[in-house]
Every structure is written in structure tokens, then in C-alpha cells.
Amino acid sequence: MTTTQPAPYDAIMFASFGGPEGQDDVIPFLRNVTRGRGVPDERLEEVAGHYRALGGRSPTNEQNRAMISALETELAGRGIDLPIYFGNRNWEPYTADAISSLHADGHRRVLALITSAYSSYSGCRQYREDFARRLDEAGLLGEMSIEKSRAYFNHPGFLEPVVDGVRSALAELQREGHDADRVRVLFSTHSIPLAMAAASGPAGAEAPAVPGTDEQGADEQGGWYVAQHLAACRYVMDQIEEDLPGLPDWELVYQSRSGSPHVPWLEPDVNDVIEQVASEDSADAVVVVPIGFVSDHVEVIWDLDTEAKETAEEHGLAFRRVATSGTDERFIAALADVVAEHLDPSRERAAVTELGPVDDLCGHNCCQLHAERAVPAEHSIDSLEEIAAELRERDSAAPAPAGATPAGAAS
What is d(CA 205, CA 187) in angstroms, rounded to the nearest whole number? Predict the structure, then answer.
């Protein structure tokens, strides 16, 4: 792995998607999420129902604040003295608010921790675009630097809580009389457009192969996004195989699709797979694992705990949903490890799958909206200044492609 040596940082930005805090916030929040896509309020109200059923409040901000508090304690225990600021792309506290506070407090070199473990436009580059846009608007490009941390999808601290959750769910089902060969494990993540999946990862770099997952269709759907998820799933199942007799069948499924039906997205949908399992009588129970998410936000609670559970119950299948890593002390320690790695280039990068850790800093043109990207000839890192220039050009041209930003992703 090639590691670019970073300069010292003087602060951390904990960057997330954002979510409404009350009923009056729901539609304005969804307008932010879908800005530039021309989605009418009538369509937004369909998604708004998920939030309104929970009182109009997404749990994501409360969860993020709990994670920040735990991370502050963990970093302090390691002697890492960096203040943490909180900024969201789509709701208060906004990225712009965090940048304003950072600048006022004298911070100029910021490391951004993202609440997304994988490489994709929505989970990686769109955050960098948000940083570039807000710095540009504030006239701080060149004066303040915000560097996104590496993807941590295969850090053991992220995956071990998932391993424990799957192991516990399978053991519980076994005690209830469900044999392993009658249980299906469904690892679920956010669906994204196929073009976005194909463009995930550094420009010009093919997605790495994941041993033992050919049947999952990685070659057909492509991109680092799918490969990273498959590697994480494979690791989880390998750990469980060491402890439990017989290994249930598993597959990677997708949820929370939005956007135009004419734009192809990653499939299969979790509900379709549950229905298929029932129709084929290939299992009596399903264990749904939100492998693509770091906390139990609205899409986990609604799409899995509500819709997927109802689908399973309607078809007579036992249902278990594994918890996300969230505030598990191992995951908080993993985030602290990522910070420590960026502070000390000589520190070994923790990674437990065949793919190994990704580079500390994003490669040029990584995780663009589409796969058609120019491969750089002279340098491997694109700056926030370059991204800001791209955004100015994009803003003056056509609106963003339909389906570019999954509505409600990570909220």
C-alpha cells in the first residue's frame, strides 16, 4: 500500500449525512438531500412518512453525538489532543457551521472522519465536494485544509461487533430449532446507481477480486463499493464458521433505492430476496445484517426493522436483525486508530480482509458520479481547489444526473 504522508492536524471534523430533528424539519431536510434533482414535494412526502412515523426526528444526530463523546474519551486516553467538531451535509449542524467554528477557533488543518465505511460517491467524494464548496463559499480555500480519512470497511473494530451480532442471532435461532441450513444470512447495504458503483475507488484502478465471492456477481456489477462489501461479508462469515457447525448460505443485498426507475441500481433488493427465499422454501429464517451502515439510523429502522421484517413475517419466516457497530467500544477504538494512523504515517494500518487498507488520502478523481473519468498523468491526489473548480463548472452547466444522491442515505 502506498501511503501519502500527511501534515499534522489541529482538529477533527466528524462529518455525517444529517437528519431532521422534528416534524417541521422533514420536508426542508429532504429538499436539501434532493437539491438539483427537481423532486416535487409530493414525492418527498412519500419518504417523509418514514421520518414522520418516528416523530419527525432522525436518530442519527443523537447517535453521532454519542459517538463523538465516546471518541473524545478514547482519544484523550491515548494522549491525542484534537478537538472534534460536528458537521452534516444536509441538516444542522451544517458543514458550513463547523467550518466557521473551526476557523474562528484558529484551526487550519482538519482531518474529517466520515460516517461511511466504504468507497462511493455518496459515501466519499460527495463529502469532499461539500468541504470544497463550503470552503470556497467562505473564501477559505488554500487557508484551511480538510482531508477525508481513509475508508475503514475492513478495520477489525468495525467488523468484530458485526461478527458477534451474526453469531448471536444464529445461536438464538438454533436454540429455537432452526438448523443452519435452513437459515439465510442477508448482508444489506444502500443501493446506488450502477454507474456510481462502477466509478467507486481511484480512477483507472480495477476493483480487487474477493476470493470465494464469484457467485455474488462482483465482476458483473463492478467497483470498489461492491468489492469492499463482499470482502467484509466474507470475513464475517469466515469468523462464524470457526465457532458454529455448518455455515448458512449468505448473500449481499441492497435497500433504500430511490431516484428514477429508468436508472439501473444495484440489486437484488432485500425484500425481493426474502420473498424469493420463501417462495423457494430454501429457508425458515433470515438474519438481516446492515453491513453497509455504522449506526441504526432511519433507513435501518424503517427499511429493515419495519419493511423487511414485515416481508419476512408475511411469508412465515423468522426474522432477526443484527445491530450496527455504533457506539461499540471496539468501533470507537477503530475510529481512534484511523486518527492515529493519519497522525503517524509509520503506524501499521489495521485491516482484516484480503483487500488490505486503502490509501490514507483519496486518489485523483476517485468515486466520481460516472465511470468515464480521465486518469491523471502527473499527480495522484486531487486538491479541494481542483474539486471546487469542478463544482463551479458543474453548477454552471447541467443539473446533477437523476439518482446521483440516494435520498435519505445514511440518515
Answer: 25
pLDDT score of 383: 83
pLDDT tens sequence across 198-248: 888 876 666 777 766 654 444 445 689 999 999 999 999 999 987 776 789
Measure the CA–CA gap between 349 and 150, rounded to whole angstroms: 10
Residue written as cell 414522520? 52
**How many other C-beta atoms can be found within 10 angstroms of the C-beta atom of residue 385?**
13
Q: What is the DSSP letter of 373?
A: -
Angle between helices 156-175 and 223-241 (to 10 degrees): 50
Whether the Cβ atoms of residue 80 and residue 111 lie closer than 8 Å to each other:
no
In this prediction, residues 383-397 reach a mean pLDDT of 84
Q: What is the pTM of this model?
A: 0.90
DSSP code at position 302: I
Phi, psi of 109 (to 5 degrees): -125, 105
Q: What kind and span of H or E run contains 187?
A: strand 183-190
